[in-house]
Amino acid sequence: MKVKQLAQMMALIGVVGPSMAQVAPPQTMQRVEITGSSIKRVAREGALPVQTISFDAIEKAGITSTDQLMRTIAANGVGADNMTSGNNVFGADADRVSGGAAFASLRGLGPNATLVLLNGRRVGNHGASGKAVDLNSIPLGAISRIEILKDGASAIYGTDAIGGVINFILKTDYQGLELSTTLNGTEAGGGMERRVSLLAGYGSLLDQGFNIMASITHDKNDKLDSRQRGFSNGYQPWRGLSPDSTGTPYATQLADTGSALGTGFNMPGDPTKYLQANLLSFQGKCDSIPGMSQYASELWPNVTPITRTKYSCAYDYGSDYQMSFPVERTNGVSRATWQISPDHKLFAEVLASRTKATGELTPVQVQASFKAGNAYPVNGPYYQDLTGIVPGFDRSKPILYKWRASDLGRRTQQIVGENARVLVGAEGVLWDKYDYKLGLSRAESTTKVALLDGYAYTDKLNALLGSGKVNLWAAPGQGQTPETAALLEAAKFRGALQHGKTTMTQLDGSISGEVYQLPAGALSMAAGFDLRRETYNFEQDIDATTVFLSPGNGALRDAGRNVKAVYAELLVPVLKDLEVQLAVRRDHYSVIGATTNPKVSFRYQPTASLLFRGSANKGFLAPSFVQLNSARLSQELPNGVIDQEGCAKHPGDPAYCAIPRLAYNTGGNSSLVPETSKQGTLGMVLAPIDGFSASFDFWAINIENRILNRTPQVVLNNWQYLPQYIVRDAAGVIDHVEAGWINAAGLKTRGLDIGLNADGKFDGGYKWSAKLDGTWLKSFKFAEFEGQPYKELVGKFSTRDVYLRWRHNANIRLSKGDWSAMLTQNYSSGYADQLPNGGKTSPPAGFEPHVKHYAKYDLSATYTGFRNTTLTVGIQNLFDKEPPFTAHNVDEVVGAGWDPRVADPRGRALSFMLKYKFM
């Protein structure tokens, strides 16, 4: 749509409309604004699929965080955006600077594509990643309800709304003082959760003309360690799972020119030249050190050649992770409202949160080299002489090695995030017929990351290792002298690692109301504007190479953009039973330009028991500051990369067939353009009998210019199509690969949302209700570049999100008098497992190619018979269901033998909630 046409439409709605207005019949029911529209109307099942969750239902389910809540939403993606799977995600889209945060991902389209609102307005994005709203910054204690729009909404809200909208709505006109406390402890230990919350409100808008509400909540969650759960086991080779790392706490010797192993060694009667040697492997004692096992070479012959692994031990790093962070979080919100006249009120709102999370990673892995000066010296007191085992071992040469530095401790990071938003505004009625609202807000979010333990200055640690004083061949915690332990401690780095900050200043306003009386009813309109200033800063406080760190995201200072938007909406009663909603919005970004997005939807109700509804719209997602502006970084792939094109031309040449430490560039891309979508819904709502209703909404989304972080592996595996990203020297040897943020070809996804609701009564005063919210995913297809066939991902293992065929949340409630009880089931269907070694070899006999479904049951009972008191006792994971086994090997997805994106690792837990209202 051209700008001129848009301006004409805005003028027609906003200027001509009021002049044609007729007096509408008085409203007998209160009109409210529903998420997905700016027009107030009588609350009812509308043209758009909106799921509403009350705070009462959240409490009775034992949910204490927004992150937990999103796991129960069937339309939310099953991905790496929750706190458990987000702990250590290694994939290209991993957000290593958002520890302690959790994000929504409706339809599995990613956090950037889900818009999170508080009372219908935007809140600031996470301070370090800058990509989306941290759900844990939302204060659940003051929430009245949550509305989830399962449809695109760029025509109303602008960017970020391709997947849908989550709107947290605060309590209003609250009066009283309420204190609640919650304890939630696991039967198997670890992961204890505690919460205390205070909610207070004073004043009546109707009687006193004002109301002040304030809420503060403090949460403290203990960590849950992988070692505390038996199902977290990375060594199950009979099922196709075994660690793929030779960086062990008991060091592995490496071959290279000038080292004790030379360029490799042969065993008697074996012509194969081997490149790694671990004494415990020769002795059959790899498992004598906790977390170590004999390397299962048969599972990885095409990934890690047997020349490196036959005489190596493996380290089960997947069982050495946290399953959940220890977290302390304080959230607060306050809202003051003044009814300055019957038609106008002013309000001010303050939101603040502080989260401190402590993340623990596996101990750092050191790979010695002569360049680094950390080879073990010939005269060292712990020199490991393999002369009697390895033919040709040269005792006169230093030892190169790979060592998991357990004696330095786990790499421990502390992440502190602070969020604040101040909003002032006005809302009311103009000329007795038009609703208006106006708001000015300022939001800031900061994140600071500090290193607490397990990190060392690179030069100090290398010098210490090169001195020979560190015993590399002993069990962790048992092999170091007091002097060496003190030297290791002195080599540690503790201090600030990185910090980031986002800000958003917003001025928005709208007007809506009935403008003309048509034969079928009143024609309603809305028009509004949205002005925003967004900024982002991110800096590393210490260079990664200084402290044995992987390269970070790089500094991104003073990035900013201005956003200007206008929008309009019409609600047209075409027939008595048919209404059509028309909307259009134009956004202009100072960085990426302008975009216009329309939407049309309809609601047709031929009978009281039957409703048809649908929508069609366009959407867009603006690239983030990180995606556009982050620095280009040079990194390296592990040893053994194969250049498929070069190796075919030069068989056996290691320069092509086993490239050591291949370099690649990754980072931002200033040429990115917004993602664009075409999407829609078509559904029906049935209410054939009293006490029962069912909704069925089919949805489809097509996205072009999908923004993603391309990996160097994708470039290498598709060398025929992406040769421009493989940079070669004059001899044709790969110099480096270009990767990083790109606009991919796109994706196509379709599915069906199903909602079932029923309620009734039994004899004896019993009331019951049942509810199911489910999503059936028909298809999720993706193509990374033009010319690549779209690949179906539903029901298959993938490294970012798992696109499950079916998910649902169902509950049954029973109540009588002061008692009520609820049984809840959360169900996720199974999926095809990751094949060992990418399917290049036959899996072992015990391997099952399918990950089983996961069903978790929660039971709670509530009693309100004591004066002003509510008591809820619940059992989460009633049958102590363990996560289903999966054979994926940790890399790119956290968890060894289980998948945190799908299952809950806590096991059976008992929750206790006590709430007392003082007045």
TrEMBL record:
State a GO cellular component annotated for this protein. Answer: cell outer membrane
Q: Give compartment(s).
A: Cell outer membrane
- Bilayer topology: Multi-pass membrane protein
* Keywords linked to the UniProt accession: Cell outer membrane, Membrane, Receptor, Signal, TonB box, Transmembrane, Transmembrane beta strand, Transport
- Which CDD domains does this UniProt record tie to the protein? ligand_gated_channel
Q: What is its main location?
A: membrane
User: Where is each TonB-dependent receptor plug domain found?
Assistant: 45-165
Q: Which family does it belong to?
A: Belongs to the TonB-dependent receptor family.
| Name of this protein | Iron complex outermembrane receptor protein
Q: What is the lineage of its organism?
A: Bacteria, Pseudomonadati, Pseudomonadota, Betaproteobacteria, Burkholderiales
